[in-house]
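Sequence only, no structure available. Ideas?
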Amino acid sequence: MAVVALEDLKLAPRLRLLGLDLGEKTIGLALSDTLLSIATPMQTLKRGKFAADAAQLDIIISVQGVGGLVVGLPLNMDGSDGPSAQSARAFGRNWANHSPLPLVLQDERLSTSAVTRTLLDADTSRRRREEVVDKMAAAYILQGALDRLRNLR
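Reply:
I predicted one. Tokens follow.
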């Protein structure tokens, strides 16, 4: 399947969404519940070539009952694409050629900084922030999509 708009996302009942925060070195993952209400930080994967990343995601998708992906689209503040947004779009195109699961690109401007600010407010150590920021950013991105999806129903 192709990259789809959130409004056009069709999921079978009880399937989850998997949120991805694509970084240069890591991929933060978050998982929705089956009611598509709550996003929960899941794990962080080391990033490699697309085929290796896709193989890891395929296993997670199969085990967790995932019906679609929500990938953060790091647009510039003016809404234009920079190198990171172009990379996310390329990931989406590669995914569309790899899997029948739909993929939604979700605007993620300021997600990592919002999560970092929350962790700083919680007095989280630098080491701990580095361990959790990517999967928490994925949950932030996924929760934004879930909230929008709820408003579309």
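Strands lie at 3-4, 16-22, 26-32, 39-46, 66-73, 103-107.
Hope that gets you unstuck.
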